[in-house]
Amino acid sequence: MSIQIFGLPVSRGVAIGRAVLVASSRVDVPHVFIDQSLIDEEVARLMKARDVVADEFDNLKRDLPADAPAELAALLDVHQMLLQDEALMGAAADWIRQRHYNAEWAVSAQLEVLARQFDEMEDPYIRERKADLEQVVERLLRSLSRGEPSAVPDASRANAQDFGGDEPLVLVANDIAPADMLSFKRSVFKGFVTDVGGKTSHTAIVARSMDIPAVVGARQASNLIRQDDCIIIDGDAGLVIVDPSPIVLEEYRFRQRQSELERSRLARLRHTPAVTLDGERVELLANIEMPEDGPGALEAGSVGVGLFRSEFLFMNRGSDLPDEEEQYDAYRRAVEAMKGLPVVIRTVDIGADKPLEGMSASELRHESVLNPALGLRAIRWSLAEPSMFRRQLRALFRAAAHGPVKIMIPMLASQREIHQTLDNITHAKRQLAESGKPCGEVELGAMIEVPAAALTLPVFLRYFDFVSIGTNDLIQYTLAIDRSDEAVAHLYDPWHPAVLQLIQSTITQARAAGKGVSVCGEMAGDPAFTELLLAMGLRSFSMHPSQIASVKQRVLRADTRRLAPLVAGVLQSEDPETACAELFHVGASTHGQPVQLRA
Fold it and tell me: Which DSSP string corresponds to 170-205?
């Protein structure tokens, strides 16, 4: 029977495919695809881990004291039996051979299958054996983590046919770690569903950057959906349909085809200059995460990079943080890839939904466990680790010798932080001068994403060449809502009058001071806000390359002379979203409704 699950729509479009479940575990499970040539090696790695755990059980049983209860020995026998059962190990090996999962992923995927079977048992004693199975799998995962990691060449660009058949795959999880999102970024998945998360959680942002449908905050989705279920993800309505009927499936396939035609039409605008009807030139920039994203930004028609998220160089590598040379090489490649166009690089923004691994991460989580969004993150972490911060700054200044670079500082909130930041910059430049390394000139900018910064903007404009409004965090902090918490994610409202007033005030003051101002948060790439931001005076938008064409279409149809006088009406309204739609004659909603099914 078909099941409908509702969540938050975060990336538009329709995805249809077989479900791939990423099970949650007390042990961190890496999720990577194994190249065909290494399948046998990965199966052998799994079996070696099994043998290691079997020896552990044998040793534990042998070392039991003479007066130990007989139940302990019996329990170890049960664990040994589960470990050797083909339903676990044989099936896990099949996941590796058929889907090319790495060993850890294969074991956790099979645990998900078996756990459901235990839950359906009528006998309470047998049902409770699920806990034994989970303990065995946890030992297996720990053994795998202690051994040699998977030898994984770049299988991320492969086709779905390489990983278990002709049907597309969609990913279903309680949550998806940023490190996994990076490894999945160019992979086979056509959509994402997660139990948790909000519209601007990291999973949502990356899904939009991949331009694939996604639904987050779907609560029990990972419990209701089984491995290989056929599911539809309606990214416009925030709807997930499990085992759809043939007529529903056909309706959504029709919508998929219509969406592909629309994308093709928008692609023709790629190299058209973004100029409004009244001749206002608008700068459409790209948000990127890797140096390799540069060519895609150019292909999408961007005129530069408005946000390079440098923290992705720091993630998924344990406590081994990138040194100056590694960072310099990455920034240089990003600059060179843009062929002389400007590149704005944000200093590391670690924390909240992007924690580091290893010791530093554990300290970060310990200090910020109650609410990481309010803890040691972004510039706060950089100022707390001056040697790390100066290492990054030196790499940035060196990269600026290869092309136009702007440095942007995240989450500044006070004049004291500004002075500390400038002192570190001065120190880093002096170190480069003493070493004789080439150093380019850069413009320095501040992100306006804390209400304190927006409300004291004249202070920031005295010290910085430009400002960029990070709407994701500005909304979060203005409304006191953790944007990654699905329990309050529905309260996250970019149309809130307080948010819009802070944005307008920032744009107006920056322009009056002759300083550059842009928006680099998710609002910049949402066409529902394009006319309003233009009317406020914004002329620089930064978004993922996949969003540029749809925003450009709105720019080309806009007349800023007509729009500007209407801003006051929107800001004074109790319902700015509706007022914007009525005054500017544009669609009020950023997301569509569920498809209407024919009888």
Answer: EEEES---HHHHHHHTTSSEEEEEESS--TTSHHHH
